[in-house]
Design brief:
The chain contains eleven helices and twelve strands. The chain is an alpha/beta fold. The protein has two domains: 180 residues, Isopropylmalate Dehydrogenase, CATH 3.40.718; 139 residues, Isopropylmalate Dehydrogenase, CATH 3.40.718.10. Strands 2-1-3-12-11-4-5-10-8-9 form a ten-stranded mixed beta sheet, sandwiched between helices. Bound molecules: 1,4-dihydronicotinamide adenine dinucleotide and magnesium ion (MG). Belongs to the isocitrate and isopropylmalate dehydrogenases family. LeuB type 2 subfamily. One of its GO terms (molecular function) is NAD binding. InterPro entries: ICDH/IPMDH, IsoCit/isopropylmalate_DH_CS, IsoPropMal-DH-like_dom, LeuB_actb.
Length: 338
């Protein structure tokens, strides 16, 4: 297993070290090559993602990323020039974000119930493609456009992937989340695609919700969800709500997948570089370790993914909720349990 590792900035290197510790415990054959990308490199050299580095990344089976960013980098530079560039260049069309409420983890909800949802967010289209521009900037007549791009090809492959995941889960339920009543053009494409693909998956029951209603149900009745499929922007927003009700950002894992396997997929915790706690050894590495679980699953090692997930479940069910988190202690414990 050839793995490219981008520790990044802030707590990124701290949590990635623990992710690798756990990965090595279950897959000693992993060959990890570190890549220096992120805010630190940009400050030093002005570089974001040189083509030569991108070519090297392509030679790997997968990428593990910590987080990039610090307060000294203007907004949008790393997002557009590094994170989104990686997703677009490597065709990461599925952004997979599970949200599960583990035993022992406190949810802020009054009645959380059982929460185990898998959000399949479109990753390379929607309003994130950079299709827009600005005219008459800094004048009272400024015009700014940000066009949402939705292709039949792009929507279909994501919807199909979501159905494949749904049919393999016990509940076999899929919810499309969109805003079809207002965004009628894109909404119609998404609805028709779900309807068409659903014919191939008769065992899967299908529901639809507007995104605003969904944010409400994530809080009042999250156990109604199994697999969710949604566009890039809605998925970005609702998965933060999902993370919040299942224990917070320190536990939210994600995978950016090229389902075709042509390019390496990239796995990363949903959180950022957390400059407020960086360097103190108190970041929770659980999100990164769960991302390693997704990585193992994706690379066809589901038995190893199961071990990692079971270790996390056991650790969470036995954690003292009042004790301060020590990043490396959790990593040690998860590696020993895996
Ligand atoms: P953040 O996720 O870094 O932090 C938000 C809050 O959650 C902070 O209070 C932080 O201490 C806490 N937190 C995050 N991860 C944690 C963990 N593993 N354990 C315990 N607490 C944790 O988001 P924020 O503050 O908006 O962004 C900080 C920097 O990270 C910015 O430069 C931003 O651009 C970047 N960022 C990078 C991402 C990526 O690389 N994919 C994603 C999100 C933000
Ligand atoms: Mg986000």
């Amino acid at each position: 297993m050839r793995l490219a590792v981008v520790p990044g900035d802030g707590i990124g290197p701290e949590v990635v070290a623990e992710g690798l510790k756990v990965l090595r415990a279950v897959a000693p054959d992993v060959e990890a090559t570190p890549y220096d990308l992120g805010a630190a490199r940009w400050h030093r050299t002005g570089e974001l993602l040189p083509d030569s580095v991108l070519d090297e990344l392509r030679q790997h089976d997968a990428i593990l990323l910590g987080a990039v960013g610090d307060p000294g980098v203007p907004s949008g530079i790393l997002e557009r020039g590094l994170l989104l560039k990686l997703r677009f260049e490597l065709d990461h069309h599925v952004n997979l974000r599970p949200a599960k409420l583990y035993d022992g983890v406190r949810s802020p909800l009054a009645r959380p119930g059982e929460i185990d949802m898998l959000c399949v967010r479109e990753g390379t289209e929607g309003p994130y493609v950079g299709n827009g521009g600005v005219l008459r900037r800094d004048t009272p007549h400024e015009i700014a456009t940000e066009v949402s791009l939705n292709t039949a090809f792009g929507v279909e492959r994501v919807v199909r992937y979501a159905f494949e995941r749904a049919v393999a889960r016990p509940r076999k339920h899929l919810t499309l989340i969109h805003k079809t009543n207002v965004l009628t053009h894109a909404g119609s494409l998404w609805s028709r695609t779900v309807e068409e693909v659903s014919a191939e998956f008769p065992e899967v029951t299908v529901a639809y919700q507007h995104v605003d209603a969904a944010t409400m149900f994530f809080i009042t009745d999250p156990s109604r969800y199994d697999v969710i499929v949604t566009d890039n922007l809605f998925g970005d927003i609702i998965t933060d709500v999902a993370a919040a009700v299942t224990g917070g950002i320190g536990m939210a894992a994600s995978g950016n997948l090229d389902v075709s396997g042509t390019n390496p997929s990239m796995f990363e915790p949903v959180h950022g570089s957390a400059p407020d706690i960086a360097g103190q050894g108190i970041a929770d590495p659980t999100a990164t370790v769960l991302s390693v679980g997704l990585l193992l699953d994706h690379l066809g090692r589901p038995e190893l993914a199961k071990k990692v997930n079971a270790a996390v479940a056991f650790d969470l069910s036995t954690r003292d909720p009042k004790a301060t988190i020590r990043t490396s202690e959790i990593g040690d414990r998860l590696a020993a349990l895996s």
